[in-house]
Amino acid sequence: MNEAVLSQLVQMVASRFKVDPKQLGAEDDLFERLGIDSLQALDLLGELELQFGVEIPDYVLKEASTFGGLAEAIERYK
Amino acid sequence: MSLNLSRFSCIGEAIRESSVPFKSNLALVEINRDLENGRWSHLDLRREAERFAAYLQDHGVVPGDLCAIVLSNQSKWVISGLGIYWSGAVLVPLDYKLTPPELHGLLTHSQPKCLIIEWPIWQKLSKESSSIATTTKVLVTEAPEGADLNGAYRWEDSPQGSFQFHRRNREDIASIIYSSGTGGRAKGCMLSHGGFLTQVEQLHAVVSPVEDDRYFSIIPTNHAIDFMCGFLMPLICGASVVHQRTLRPQYLVETMKNYRITLLALVPLLLKMIKQGIEEKIEALPAFTKSLFEGIKTLNETMTRKQPRPGLSRMLFKGIHDRFGGSLRQIIVGGAYVDRNLAEYFYRIGLPVAIGYGLTEAGTAITLNDLKPFRGDTVGLPLPGMELEIRNPDEGGIGEIWASGPTLMKGYLDDPELTAETLVKGWLRTGDLGKMDASGHLKIVGRSKNMVVTEGGKNVYPEDIENAFEDISDWEEFCIFAANYIWPEGRLIGEQLIVVFRPKGDGVSEILLEGLRKRNRHLADYKRISGFVVHERDFPRTSSMKIKRQQLAQELKSLRKREEALRPLKGDA
């Protein structure tokens, strides 16, 4: 996993959902940590695409619901 | 003009015949974000579906075989569905959002001859159940080149072969649609060709779809509502279905605008999200414009009191209507309880919301508001041909809703016991509580069955999630309930799932609660329990040691009030 991508992802999510980035680890489930539903997660995915300049299919959220998994997906679709 | 489908003996025949007069009309559009993947006229669609039916027949599918579809809303769903019907097979639509173990459970229950599935889902499912491809022909869509298909075939490899159209009878099963059962007792509703044809006629009488209608298919098509509104009805009526491959809100709005969508069917959760989006825009307006907006709302309400006047409302609320393409004429909402205020909000801005009520077991809809005039407080009048009875009403006229009519399911797949409990002498016991008003409109006020329905239209039966907690050993026994089943509240918003347990000698430990929270976290959010009740007595059980749920619920209710007994399970979601 690319640590730089993970770090950037965590920072972005922390600022969007107003949580402490130190509380978000690679293994943490984003639905559980952020208390969001699947539609909010899709919205977040849209923002990540803009931020990282990638196109990520919706189904990635089923494959990778942890921050680490999402960072890997961003890398994969770059 | 009313639609008469009595000359057809099956759904496949009705759709085939429609493809002739409507051959040049647009039938299907698939968009992926900003790009259009493809568009098909009714004639193009017929050719594609025939090609796919030939492929199924090459794979040995014969009339009466079951074929399951696990695809997101996309063109291949519709093409596959038609191919299945035209081969005389039984279509089993499954929810593409299910987890691999859940899908495996329903596939084991239905045992389809053929499975049509999207590549990312197949990748995960084939790991979960490696033997599926040995017993079922698996046709996988959109697999990357060179990928190991784990015994599946490519959907796109279908040849240009000839096929034979197989007509079915009205009494034959057309589809098995699961109303629930992803964790326990699978409830596969067996719905007949005759039932579907009648339901299309019934809905046509109220919704009046025309060939110029463009329906945006957003709810998964395995859901009874989209199955009817986003698959059968538009194809029979010569209208178009629009699919957007992503569910990102910004693309959904863009699609509505670009394709001038006229009809939508939604669950309340999605309607609520649209409302939030509109409110955010209005909130950003200057104070004067906002007060002007309020005045226009009142004007529109007065002018549309008897029935919707789309042209006028579009003119009054041009900004809002343009955001949705400016052509939206009706939003059908169902699948879960619809808050009156939510429906009224849309009516006041000239976007008529028709609230309906139904069950998969009833073939989709039992009642639907005809908007003449708009009513937000009821779920409408029974559809033509449907009968309703309120059984054992109390002094306020509230009792259990029973329904009868030609669209009811034939029963649950492989479950005669549950079928006998649900279908009694030609009547469907809905398990919902309601009353009829003086004008014959039905009002839903609660539930008499032990279940919850989420705002997203998902049915959750407590028994189905008990296995997630079965390995907890820090209690003597436990049982999961819908809180409303024990303590009815007369409202259907924010329904809760709760666990009732008898603790071991040392009482309720933090270890036990943490165990509950941990298992809760592994469940989908709509299946999570939100509270617990400690019950010190032995649970009543049958001679075969099954918990007598109804008796336990009555015991709990008689002992304590809801607010005294129920404690929140904090930190779980």
Q: Could you characterize the architecture of this molecule?
A:
The complex is a heterodimer of chains A (78) and B (573). Chain A has 78 residues and is an all-alpha fold. Chain A has one domain: Orthogonal Bundle (Non-ribosomal Peptide Synthetase Peptidyl Carrier Protein, Chain A), CATH 1.10.1200. Chain A is 64% helix and 0% strand. Chain A contains five helices and no strands. Chain A starts with a helix and ends with a helix. Chain B folds into three domains: 11-258, 3-Layer(aba) Sandwich (Rossmann fold), CATH 3.40.50; 267-447, 3-Layer(aba) Sandwich (Rossmann fold), CATH 3.40.50.12780; 461-568, GMP Synthetase, Chain A, domain 3, CATH 3.30.300.30. Chain B is globular, with a radius of gyration of 24 Å. In chain B, a hairpin with a 6-residue loop joins β8 and β9. Chain B has a nine-stranded mixed sheet with strand order 2-1-11-10-12-13-14-15-16, sandwiched between helices. In chain B, strands 4-3-5-6-7 form a five-stranded parallel sheet. In chain B, strands 17, 18, 20, 21 and 22 form a five-stranded antiparallel sheet that branches. In chain B, 35% of the residues lie in helices and 24% in strands. By secondary structure, chain B is of the alpha/beta class. Chain B starts with 10 loop residues before the first helix and ends in a 5-residue tail after the last strand. Chains A and B meet through α3 of A and α5 of B.
Quick summary of this structure?
Chain A has 78 residues and is an all-alpha fold. Chain A has helices at residues 3-17, 30-34, 38-52, 60-63, 67-77. Chain B starts with 10 loop residues before the first helix and ends in a 5-residue tail after the last strand.
